[in-house]
Design a protein that fits this description.
About 80% of the residues lie in helices and about 0% in strands. The N and C termini lie far apart (about 45 Å). The protein is globular and about 60 Å long. It is mainly α and about 190 residues long. Helix 1 (about 1-10) crosses helix 2 (about 20-45) and helix 2 (about 20-45) runs parallel beside helix 4. It has seven helices and no strands.
Length: about 190
Amino acid sequence: MTDRIINQLIQMNMIDREDEEIYRFGLEGLFLKLIHYTSYLLIALFTHELAGFLIFFAAFLVLRKSAGGYHAKTRGGCYISSCLIVFCMVTCIKIISDWNYIAPVGCTLLLLSDICIFGFAPLGNRNREYDAEEALLFRKRVVEFLILENALVVILWLVGKVNYAVPIVMAVGVEAGLLLLEKIRTKKVSGNGI
């Protein structure tokens, strides 16, 4: 399908043949994102947790874009692991949002996740390394987003909207986990052990 679109764009003189690979890469990335996001929405709809998913995904995405962390080796591995994470998170959100003792557990998870993110972010991966200037910029963004998300969790908890706070806590926790995974992977690759 990508080739057909690229060929049409070339025939219509909308793009140059020399730029074909750049456009192919961009279109493939766009289609992959659409497949991922559609799958995530279907999982959220299947589990009847669309609102929780949307909150989780928004909170996660802003951290993920700046903090970095683990990425799968292959596109298939990325797709499967991402869908599994989304399924597990929306299922957890659905189950634990009504627990009476979620506040101490959530606060503990948030605190541990914050420590991990503050300690490691931003962290490049096998697909993207940061230079010193980028790392400084992304570090600033991570801190800002993390402070904002923590404040939002506290406010939501105080006004009794735990079901909206839990997805944010889960998003921060997942990002912390991905940072830890990448840290472990890079230590193993470099031969330093864990």
